[in-house]
Every structure is written in structure tokens, then in C-alpha cells.
Design goal:
Distance between the termini: 39 Å
Largest sheet: 2 strands, antiparallel
Number of strands: 2
Order of helices and strands: HEHHEH
């Protein structure tokens, strides 16, 4: 996961818990320019595959999912209820 949002430890943990997957936080969270350079490098033949690029990316940290699904299920249900109510409100 990259971008400014990956600086937020709380949000990173929430996402890892909800999707039940490890999240790898890069050293540099601003990955747009790096991604463009990688794409150009693949196009120019500097790298032959995405596997070569994966070897260049060393995560700064790894966020491991915790078993909090019961908590998140309630939060997601509340969010879905709020979205349904907002849709009805917007139709009035």
C-alpha cells in the first residue's frame, strides 16, 4: 500500500484486518513517480518483468491482520445502514 494514507498506522491496520491480508508499507510512500519510472523501464527493456521490479521493492514495515472481524462486521453494517439512509434522504 502506498501514498499518504499509508502513513496512517490506524488505517493501515483497519485495512489489513478487513481484507485479512498483510500490507507492505514501502520506504517511500510517494510511489506515483516511481511507478511511472518502472513502467517506462519495462517499456524500454531495462527490466524484463514485474518479478524483477518486485525485487527492488523492500518494505519498510509489514502490517499483519488481526482477528477483529466481529468488530468490523458491526462497523460495516452501521456504515451500510448510513449509506441506505443517505440515499433515501437524497431522493426527497
Amino acid at each position: 500500500m502506498d501514498g499518504g494514507v499509508s502513513n496512517n498506522d490506524f488505517l493501515m491496520q483497519c485495512v489489513a484486518d478487513i481484507i485479512q491480508k498483510k500490507l507492505y508499507r514501502p520506504h517511500s510512500v510517494s510511489m506515483t513517480s516511481r511507478g511511472a519510472a518502472f513502467a517506462a523501464g519495462i517499456g524500454a527493456g531495462v527490466w524484463k518483468s514485474l518479478d524483477e521490479l518486485k525485487q527492488l521493492s523492500m518494505p519498510e514495515s509489514v502490517v499483519t491482520p488481526q482477528d477483529n472481524w466481529d468488530y468490523y462486521r458491526l462497523v460495516i453494517q452501521d456504515w451500510e445502514r448510513a449509506v441506505r439512509r443517505a440515499k433515501l434522504w437524497s431522493l426527497e
